[in-house]
Amino acid sequence: MKTRITELFGIQHPIIQGGMHFVGFAELAAAVSNAGGLGIITGLTQKTPENLAREIARCREMTDKPFGVNLTFLPVIEAPDYDGLIKVIIDGGVKAVETAGNNPSKYLPALREAGIKVIHKCTSVRHALKAQSIGCDAVSVDGFECGGHPGEDDVPNMILLPRAADELEIPFVASGGMADARSLVASLAMGADGMNMGTRFLATREAPVHDNVKQAIVQASELDTRLVMRPLRNTERVLNNPAVERLLQTEREKGAQLEFADIAKEVAGVYPRVMQQGDVGAGAWSCGMVAGLIHDIPTCKELIDRIMSEAEQIIRQRLLGML
Ligand SMILES: Cc1cc2nc3c(=O)[nH]c(=O)nc-3n(C[C@H](O)[C@H](O)[C@H](O)COP(=O)(O)O)c2cc1C
After folding, report:
1. Taking the model in full, what pTM does it have?
2. Which of 111, 242, 256, 277 is the most interior residue, by most CB within 10 Å?
3. Residue of 62, 56, 59 lying closest to 43 (CA atoms)
Protein backbone atom coordinates (compact mmCIF):
# COMPACT_ATOMS: atom_id res chain seq x y z
CA MET A 1 0.00 0.00 0.00
CA LYS A 2 1.40 3.33 -1.06
CA THR A 3 0.16 6.57 0.54
CA ARG A 4 1.53 10.07 1.08
CA ILE A 5 2.68 8.89 4.53
CA THR A 6 4.63 5.86 3.27
CA GLU A 7 6.28 8.14 0.72
CA LEU A 8 7.03 10.92 3.21
CA PHE A 9 8.75 8.67 5.74
CA GLY A 10 10.14 6.05 3.35
CA ILE A 11 8.28 3.21 5.09
CA GLN A 12 6.55 0.12 3.73
CA HIS A 13 3.22 0.33 5.57
CA PRO A 14 1.23 3.45 6.60
CA ILE A 15 1.39 2.61 10.30
CA ILE A 16 3.10 4.71 12.99
CA GLN A 17 3.77 3.87 16.63
CA GLY A 18 3.07 6.96 18.73
CA GLY A 19 5.54 8.08 21.37
CA MET A 20 4.76 6.55 24.77
CA HIS A 21 6.37 7.54 28.04
CA PHE A 22 8.41 4.65 29.52
CA VAL A 23 7.28 2.40 26.62
CA GLY A 24 8.89 3.89 23.52
CA PHE A 25 12.40 2.55 24.05
CA ALA A 26 14.67 1.36 21.22
CA GLU A 27 13.32 -2.23 21.43
CA LEU A 28 9.77 -1.23 20.48
CA ALA A 29 10.74 1.44 17.95
CA ALA A 30 13.09 -0.97 16.17
CA ALA A 31 10.50 -3.78 16.16
CA VAL A 32 7.87 -1.53 14.57
CA SER A 33 10.31 -0.19 12.00
CA ASN A 34 11.61 -3.68 11.17
CA ALA A 35 7.99 -4.70 10.58
CA GLY A 36 7.64 -1.94 7.98
CA GLY A 37 5.99 0.77 10.11
CA LEU A 38 7.52 3.86 11.70
CA GLY A 39 8.77 3.17 15.23
CA ILE A 40 9.19 6.11 17.60
CA ILE A 41 11.52 6.51 20.58
CA THR A 42 10.04 8.69 23.34
CA GLY A 43 12.51 11.52 23.83
CA LEU A 44 11.50 12.75 27.28
CA THR A 45 11.68 9.29 28.87
CA GLN A 46 15.43 9.51 28.28
CA LYS A 47 15.56 12.78 30.26
CA THR A 48 19.02 13.97 29.09
CA PRO A 49 20.47 14.50 25.61
CA GLU A 50 23.27 12.02 26.44
CA ASN A 51 20.78 9.26 27.26
CA LEU A 52 18.73 10.00 24.15
CA ALA A 53 21.86 9.85 21.98
CA ARG A 54 22.59 6.39 23.44
CA GLU A 55 19.01 5.23 22.84
CA ILE A 56 19.13 6.41 19.21
CA ALA A 57 22.43 4.55 18.73
CA ARG A 58 20.91 1.40 20.31
CA CYS A 59 17.92 1.63 17.98
CA ARG A 60 20.18 2.00 14.98
CA GLU A 61 21.96 -1.22 15.98
CA MET A 62 18.60 -3.01 15.95
CA THR A 63 17.23 -1.69 12.66
CA ASP A 64 18.43 -0.22 9.39
CA LYS A 65 14.91 1.09 8.65
CA PRO A 66 13.73 4.67 9.32
CA PHE A 67 12.58 5.43 12.87
CA GLY A 68 11.62 8.61 14.70
CA VAL A 69 11.79 10.37 18.05
CA ASN A 70 8.83 11.87 19.94
CA LEU A 71 9.25 15.28 21.56
CA THR A 72 6.39 16.17 23.87
CA PHE A 73 5.86 19.77 24.92
CA LEU A 74 3.48 19.46 27.87
CA PRO A 75 3.23 21.40 31.11
CA VAL A 76 5.98 19.86 33.22
CA ILE A 77 7.44 21.04 36.48
CA GLU A 78 11.01 21.34 35.19
CA ALA A 79 11.42 22.03 31.44
CA PRO A 80 13.69 19.47 29.73
CA ASP A 81 16.73 20.56 27.69
CA TYR A 82 14.85 20.66 24.37
CA ASP A 83 17.75 22.29 22.50
CA GLY A 84 20.09 19.54 23.64
CA LEU A 85 17.58 16.81 22.75
CA ILE A 86 17.13 18.27 19.27
CA LYS A 87 20.87 18.43 18.75
CA VAL A 88 21.32 14.71 19.44
CA ILE A 89 18.32 13.88 17.21
CA ILE A 90 20.00 15.74 14.35
CA ASP A 91 23.49 14.40 15.11
CA GLY A 92 22.06 10.87 15.41
CA GLY A 93 20.78 11.03 11.84
CA VAL A 94 17.13 10.51 12.85
CA LYS A 95 14.82 11.09 9.88
CA ALA A 96 11.49 11.75 11.60
CA VAL A 97 10.26 13.61 14.68
CA GLU A 98 6.80 13.36 16.21
CA THR A 99 6.03 16.52 18.16
CA ALA A 100 3.10 16.75 20.56
CA GLY A 101 1.62 19.19 23.02
CA ASN A 102 2.50 22.85 22.60
CA ASN A 103 3.35 24.55 19.31
CA PRO A 104 6.76 23.25 18.10
CA SER A 105 7.50 26.26 15.85
CA LYS A 106 10.60 27.31 17.79
CA TYR A 107 12.32 24.02 16.95
CA LEU A 108 11.13 23.53 13.37
CA PRO A 109 13.84 25.49 11.51
CA ALA A 110 16.66 23.36 12.97
CA LEU A 111 14.81 20.10 12.29
CA ARG A 112 13.84 21.02 8.77
CA GLU A 113 17.29 22.25 7.91
CA ALA A 114 18.59 18.82 8.91
CA GLY A 115 16.09 17.23 6.49
CA ILE A 116 14.02 15.75 9.31
CA LYS A 117 10.32 15.21 8.59
CA VAL A 118 8.09 16.53 11.35
CA ILE A 119 4.68 15.09 12.16
CA HIS A 120 2.79 17.06 14.81
CA LYS A 121 0.19 15.28 16.89
CA CYS A 122 -2.86 17.36 17.67
CA THR A 123 -6.43 16.93 18.82
CA SER A 124 -8.29 19.60 16.84
CA VAL A 125 -8.62 20.87 13.27
CA ARG A 126 -7.58 24.30 14.57
CA HIS A 127 -4.25 23.00 15.84
CA ALA A 128 -3.75 20.83 12.74
CA LEU A 129 -4.12 23.90 10.54
CA LYS A 130 -1.68 25.78 12.75
CA ALA A 131 0.83 22.92 12.39
CA GLN A 132 0.40 23.07 8.62
CA SER A 133 0.89 26.84 8.58
CA ILE A 134 4.15 26.72 10.56
CA GLY A 135 5.63 24.14 8.19
CA CYS A 136 5.03 20.68 9.69
CA ASP A 137 5.22 17.97 7.03
CA ALA A 138 2.25 15.99 8.35
CA VAL A 139 -0.08 15.78 11.31
CA SER A 140 -1.34 12.98 13.48
CA VAL A 141 -4.99 13.72 14.25
CA ASP A 142 -5.72 12.35 17.72
CA GLY A 143 -9.44 11.84 18.43
CA PHE A 144 -11.27 11.86 21.75
CA GLU A 145 -10.94 8.06 21.98
CA CYS A 146 -7.17 8.22 22.31
CA GLY A 147 -5.04 7.04 25.18
CA GLY A 148 -3.07 9.90 26.71
CA HIS A 149 -4.05 13.54 26.21
CA PRO A 150 -7.18 14.00 24.04
CA GLY A 151 -7.31 17.79 24.55
CA GLU A 152 -10.44 19.55 25.75
CA ASP A 153 -12.72 19.55 22.68
CA ASP A 154 -13.94 15.93 22.93
CA VAL A 155 -14.46 15.37 19.20
CA PRO A 156 -14.29 11.66 18.27
CA ASN A 157 -12.55 10.48 15.11
CA MET A 158 -15.74 9.78 13.16
CA ILE A 159 -16.15 13.57 12.98
CA LEU A 160 -12.58 14.80 13.49
CA LEU A 161 -11.00 12.86 10.61
CA PRO A 162 -13.37 13.98 7.83
CA ARG A 163 -13.17 17.53 9.24
CA ALA A 164 -9.37 17.35 9.05
CA ALA A 165 -9.59 15.96 5.52
CA ASP A 166 -11.80 18.87 4.47
CA GLU A 167 -9.36 21.47 5.75
CA LEU A 168 -5.82 20.12 5.48
CA GLU A 169 -3.48 20.02 2.53
CA ILE A 170 -0.61 18.17 4.19
CA PRO A 171 -1.05 14.42 4.80
CA PHE A 172 -2.36 13.20 8.13
CA VAL A 173 -2.68 9.92 9.99
CA ALA A 174 -5.65 8.92 12.11
CA SER A 175 -4.76 8.44 15.77
CA GLY A 176 -6.80 7.30 18.74
CA GLY A 177 -8.87 4.13 18.80
CA MET A 178 -6.88 2.45 16.02
CA ALA A 179 -6.31 -1.28 16.45
CA ASP A 180 -6.73 -3.33 13.31
CA ALA A 181 -7.40 -3.50 9.56
CA ARG A 182 -10.88 -2.05 10.04
CA SER A 183 -9.34 1.00 11.72
CA LEU A 184 -6.89 1.45 8.84
CA VAL A 185 -9.41 1.08 6.02
CA ALA A 186 -11.92 3.36 7.78
CA SER A 187 -9.20 5.98 8.32
CA LEU A 188 -8.22 5.86 4.67
CA ALA A 189 -11.89 6.20 3.71
CA MET A 190 -12.18 9.30 5.87
CA GLY A 191 -9.24 10.96 4.18
CA ALA A 192 -6.24 9.93 6.28
CA ASP A 193 -3.06 8.54 4.70
CA GLY A 194 -2.37 6.05 7.46
CA MET A 195 -2.81 5.48 11.17
CA ASN A 196 -0.98 5.98 14.44
CA MET A 197 -1.38 3.54 17.33
CA GLY A 198 -0.38 3.78 20.98
CA THR A 199 -2.26 1.37 23.24
CA ARG A 200 -2.26 -1.40 20.59
CA PHE A 201 1.56 -1.31 20.37
CA LEU A 202 1.80 -1.34 24.17
CA ALA A 203 0.26 -4.83 24.11
CA THR A 204 2.90 -6.39 21.84
CA ARG A 205 5.63 -8.87 22.64
CA GLU A 206 8.45 -6.39 22.02
CA ALA A 207 7.02 -3.54 24.11
CA PRO A 208 9.64 -3.38 26.89
CA VAL A 209 7.13 -3.17 29.74
CA HIS A 210 6.06 -5.55 32.51
CA ASP A 211 3.67 -8.32 31.44
CA ASN A 212 1.08 -7.08 34.00
CA VAL A 213 0.59 -3.97 31.83
CA LYS A 214 -0.09 -6.02 28.70
CA GLN A 215 -2.47 -8.34 30.58
CA ALA A 216 -4.32 -5.33 32.04
CA ILE A 217 -4.95 -4.04 28.52
CA VAL A 218 -6.08 -7.43 27.21
CA GLN A 219 -8.48 -7.77 30.14
CA ALA A 220 -9.87 -4.22 29.88
CA SER A 221 -12.99 -3.39 27.89
CA GLU A 222 -13.87 -0.15 26.09
CA LEU A 223 -15.68 0.90 29.29
CA ASP A 224 -12.61 0.81 31.50
CA THR A 225 -10.89 4.14 30.79
CA ARG A 226 -11.45 7.41 32.66
CA LEU A 227 -10.60 11.05 31.99
CA VAL A 228 -8.47 12.62 34.71
CA MET A 229 -7.08 16.13 35.23
CA ARG A 230 -9.93 17.76 33.31
CA PRO A 231 -10.30 20.53 35.92
CA LEU A 232 -6.62 21.41 35.27
CA ARG A 233 -7.25 21.54 31.49
CA ASN A 234 -4.65 18.80 31.08
CA THR A 235 -7.07 15.95 30.45
CA GLU A 236 -5.61 12.47 30.22
CA ARG A 237 -7.39 9.22 29.32
CA VAL A 238 -6.14 6.49 31.64
CA LEU A 239 -7.01 2.93 32.61
CA ASN A 240 -9.32 2.85 35.61
CA ASN A 241 -8.08 1.41 38.92
CA PRO A 242 -8.55 2.22 42.63
CA ALA A 243 -5.91 5.01 42.51
CA VAL A 244 -7.77 6.62 39.59
CA GLU A 245 -11.07 6.35 41.51
CA ARG A 246 -9.37 8.12 44.45
CA LEU A 247 -8.04 10.82 42.12
CA LEU A 248 -11.50 11.41 40.65
CA GLN A 249 -12.97 11.59 44.15
CA THR A 250 -10.41 14.30 45.03
CA GLU A 251 -11.33 16.16 41.83
CA ARG A 252 -15.00 16.08 42.79
CA GLU A 253 -14.31 17.22 46.34
CA LYS A 254 -11.97 20.08 45.42
CA GLY A 255 -13.99 21.29 42.43
CA ALA A 256 -12.63 24.52 40.98
CA GLN A 257 -10.06 24.76 43.81
CA LEU A 258 -8.18 21.67 42.57
CA GLU A 259 -4.43 22.07 42.27
CA PHE A 260 -1.89 19.66 40.85
CA ALA A 261 -0.47 19.04 44.33
CA ASP A 262 -3.84 17.55 45.39
CA ILE A 263 -3.49 14.69 42.91
CA ALA A 264 0.30 14.47 42.56
CA LYS A 265 0.32 11.21 44.55
CA GLU A 266 -1.75 9.48 41.86
CA VAL A 267 0.06 10.90 38.81
CA ALA A 268 3.66 11.91 39.57
CA GLY A 269 6.37 9.30 39.14
CA VAL A 270 3.83 6.59 38.31
CA TYR A 271 5.17 5.44 34.92
CA PRO A 272 8.34 3.60 36.00
CA ARG A 273 6.40 1.79 38.75
CA VAL A 274 3.71 0.69 36.30
CA MET A 275 5.76 -0.04 33.20
CA GLN A 276 8.91 -1.47 34.76
CA GLN A 277 7.78 -2.94 38.08
CA GLY A 278 4.33 -4.02 36.88
CA ASP A 279 2.48 -2.25 39.71
CA VAL A 280 -0.50 -1.43 37.46
CA GLY A 281 -2.45 0.04 40.39
CA ALA A 282 0.29 2.54 41.30
CA GLY A 283 -1.61 5.47 39.80
CA ALA A 284 -2.96 6.91 36.56
CA TRP A 285 -1.38 5.70 33.29
CA SER A 286 -2.53 6.39 29.74
CA CYS A 287 -4.66 3.83 27.95
CA GLY A 288 -7.14 4.21 25.09
CA MET A 289 -10.74 3.01 24.77
CA VAL A 290 -9.29 0.77 22.06
CA ALA A 291 -8.34 -1.63 24.88
CA GLY A 292 -11.79 -3.10 24.17
CA LEU A 293 -10.52 -4.25 20.75
CA ILE A 294 -7.26 -5.75 22.03
CA HIS A 295 -7.41 -9.47 22.83
CA ASP A 296 -3.87 -10.73 22.23
CA ILE A 297 -0.17 -9.89 22.57
CA PRO A 298 1.35 -10.45 19.11
CA THR A 299 4.79 -9.47 17.88
CA CYS A 300 4.87 -6.13 16.05
CA LYS A 301 5.45 -8.00 12.80
CA GLU A 302 2.49 -10.33 13.37
CA LEU A 303 0.31 -7.33 14.20
CA ILE A 304 1.34 -5.22 11.22
CA ASP A 305 1.26 -8.14 8.76
CA ARG A 306 -2.22 -9.06 9.99
CA ILE A 307 -3.45 -5.48 9.64
CA MET A 308 -2.09 -5.14 6.11
CA SER A 309 -3.37 -8.48 4.81
CA GLU A 310 -6.82 -8.04 6.36
CA ALA A 311 -6.98 -4.47 5.06
CA GLU A 312 -6.40 -5.80 1.57
CA GLN A 313 -9.17 -8.37 2.05
CA ILE A 314 -11.60 -5.72 3.31
CA ILE A 315 -10.88 -3.50 0.33
CA ARG A 316 -10.80 -6.21 -2.35
CA GLN A 317 -13.59 -8.45 -1.08
CA ARG A 318 -15.95 -6.65 1.25
CA LEU A 319 -15.86 -3.17 -0.29
CA LEU A 320 -15.34 -3.96 -3.99
CA GLY A 321 -17.92 -6.72 -3.68
CA MET A 322 -20.53 -4.17 -2.69
CA LEU A 323 -20.16 -2.23 -5.90
C1 LIG B 1 1.09 4.54 27.94
C2 LIG B 1 1.02 5.69 26.98
C3 LIG B 1 1.95 6.71 27.09
C4 LIG B 1 1.90 7.78 26.19
N5 LIG B 1 2.87 8.75 26.27
C6 LIG B 1 2.90 9.74 25.33
C7 LIG B 1 3.95 10.70 25.34
O8 LIG B 1 4.84 10.69 26.19
N9 LIG B 1 3.92 11.65 24.36
C10 LIG B 1 2.95 11.68 23.40
O11 LIG B 1 3.01 12.55 22.52
N12 LIG B 1 1.95 10.80 23.38
C13 LIG B 1 1.90 9.82 24.31
N14 LIG B 1 0.90 8.88 24.27
C15 LIG B 1 -0.12 8.96 23.19
C16 LIG B 1 0.23 8.05 22.01
O17 LIG B 1 1.39 8.45 21.36
C18 LIG B 1 -0.91 8.03 20.97
O19 LIG B 1 -1.14 9.32 20.48
C20 LIG B 1 -2.20 7.49 21.55
O21 LIG B 1 -1.94 6.38 22.36
C22 LIG B 1 -3.17 7.12 20.45
O23 LIG B 1 -4.34 6.58 20.97
P24 LIG B 1 -4.58 4.99 21.17
O25 LIG B 1 -3.96 4.67 22.48
O26 LIG B 1 -6.06 4.88 21.16
O27 LIG B 1 -3.90 4.29 20.03
C28 LIG B 1 0.89 7.83 25.18
C29 LIG B 1 -0.04 6.78 25.11
C30 LIG B 1 0.01 5.72 25.98
C31 LIG B 1 -1.01 4.62 25.86
Report:
1. 0.98
2. 111
3. 56
